[in-house]
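Here is the promised in-class demo. Please do not try to memorize the tokens; focus on the logic of going from shape to residues.
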């Protein structure tokens, strides 16, 4: 789980929304690699959207995830989002 990090800020609005942004530094790889990682993570988060609390999420990538299997990404993301949203 050192490969990903999540920061969560709850929002108090009339219309609850989930907002996600990504921080992927250049040391992870070139633009093509970073965009591929971003697309994969978006796909994982789309599946989890119903389970996520309303608020703003910042997903930080710390290492190259190109070789990670999709099921592993789902598992890792699930774990770190639960940790981030638990007080």
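The designed amino acids, position by position:
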């Amino acid at each position: 789980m050192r490969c990903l990090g999540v920061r969560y800020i709850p929002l108090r609005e009339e219309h609850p929304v989930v907002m996600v942004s990504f921080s992927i530094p250049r040391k992870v790889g070139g633009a093509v690699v970073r965009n591929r990682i971003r697309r994969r993570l978006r796909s994982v988060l789309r599946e989890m959207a119903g389970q996520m609390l309303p608020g703003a999420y910042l997903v930080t990538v710390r290492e190259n995830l190109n070789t990670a299997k999709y099921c592993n990404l789902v598992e890792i993301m699930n774990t770190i989002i639960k940790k981030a949203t638990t007080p």
